[in-house]
Amino acid sequence: MRETDQILSLWAECEQAGESAVLATVVRTRGSSYRLPGARLLITAQGRRAGSISGGCLEDELIKKAFWLTEGSRRTIRRYDTHPDDDGSPAYGLGCNGIIDILLERVTPGDAKVLTLLNSVRKTRQPAVIAHVLQPQNLAGRRIYVRKDGQSADEIDDDLATQLEAAAITALDELASCHVSFPHDGASVEAFVEVLPPPLRLLVFGAGDDAIPVTELARYLGWSVFVSDGRAHYARPERFPEANAVRTARPAESEAQADAHIDQWTAAVLMSHSYSQDLEALRVLAGASLCYLGILGPRKRTAQLLIDAGLDVSGLAASLHSPMGLDIGADGPQQVALSVITEIQASLNGRLGGSLKERPGSIHSRAEDDAPVFTVHSIVCA
User: Fold this and answer.
1) What's the number of CA atoms in the CB half-sphere (13 Å) around residue 335?
2) How far does Cα 327 stand from its chain's mean position?
3) What was the pLDDT predicted at 282?
4) Strands 98-107 and 75-81, how do they pair?
5) Per residue in 190-225, pLDDT tens?
6) What pLDDT score was predicted for residue 373?
7) Cα separation of the two ends of the chain
8) Residues 177, 76, 60, CA angle at the centre, nearest 5°?
9) Spatial contact of 118 and 8, defined as CB atoms under 8 Å apart
């Protein structure tokens, strides 16, 4: 999410200056790749960039060619094969042994629908979906955009738009991006259906010294962070310069604030070191649809909190983490913060946080690894 903020910030500068840019989006991968579909890179005419689509080598390639490839406002899908060359040297310096399809498009002030939609999702916290057509060649690069309040399309006939919209709505309901294929007008349509979720919001209940690195790490990842504590000498904005907001408030008062409204992209951590405040916060959060609820402290303390709050742990099992954090042998505020933030990140992706060397199969979970690879190397469309 930090990358999205950086891309939107750079694009705002381009818009203000009346300049165009090239937006690169990974739309499909096969085999090993550094980034997954949905990763983006924005390149300006001066060679400035934000975001990433690889470990760095493809970025250099695109800085040289992106404006030439999109001359005349074209969209083009470029394929990069990172398997070793015949002489054994790694292609593009990567040696990832994978194939990456990248959609390149020229964006101009007033005509940057993807970036406009990304900004809207960030501000409204309402998810959206983009269905990118990859095949057939004459339609490649065209899209439909779906939100809960409607959809729009890029020069796609009604029948195809209807089929893409159905796939997009399913993806939106399941909050899962996917690749789809279906017959249309005598051809096979391939599309990348991309879900754009809002950025994670982290509610930190407690403004002690150990909450400071939690806030800093969360903001580094691009999360929105709201800190609250009933003790005025702790809850001071100058102690948490990275936080979106810092409030002197009891948990119930803090949660009631509009900009800290809880949704399914909200995580919360209880770390006030005050039993009464943690108890109040637990009662407030018990019925919320949090993606993560962490409680600092030993199991016995949490067990007593649940008893005193009159709560059944089974009702919180999906989101409750106590003691919160991954088992990395953390000691001290900074290491504990790393442990907590990484556990939240793992939970967002349905992972347990183990060592990658122990993970069977691919590092990334991708059903499309078993899908057929397109044979086309470059697709250009108006």
Assistant:
1) 6
2) 24
3) 92
4) antiparallel
5) 999 999 999 999 999 999 999 999 999 999 999 999
6) 34
7) 30
8) 90
9) yes
What are the φ and ψ backbone dihedral angles of 135, each rounded to 5 degrees?
A: -145, 150
CA dist., res. 53 & res. 62, Å (int): 10
Q: From residue 9, give the alpha-carbon distance in Å to each of 53, 95, 244, 289.
A: 18, 32, 17, 30
Q: Are 202 and 269 in contact (CB under 8 A)?
A: yes
Contacts of 90 (CB under 8 A, 6+ apart): 82, 84, 96
Q: What is the rounded distance in angstroms from the CA atom of residue 193 to the CA atom of residue 144?
A: 9
Do the Cβ atoms of 45 and 20 come closer than 8 Å?
yes
Structure tokens that stand for 62 in this block: 């695109």
Residue 311: phi and psi, rounded to 5, are -115, 150
SS3 content of the chain, % helix, strand, coil (to 5): 35, 25, 40
- Report the sign of the C-alpha dihedral through residues 299, 300, 301, 306, in that order: positive
For 204, the token pair is 């930190």
- What does the alpha-carbon distance between residue 230 and residue 234 come to, in Å, rounded to a whole number? 8
Indicate the residue type of 301.
Answer: R
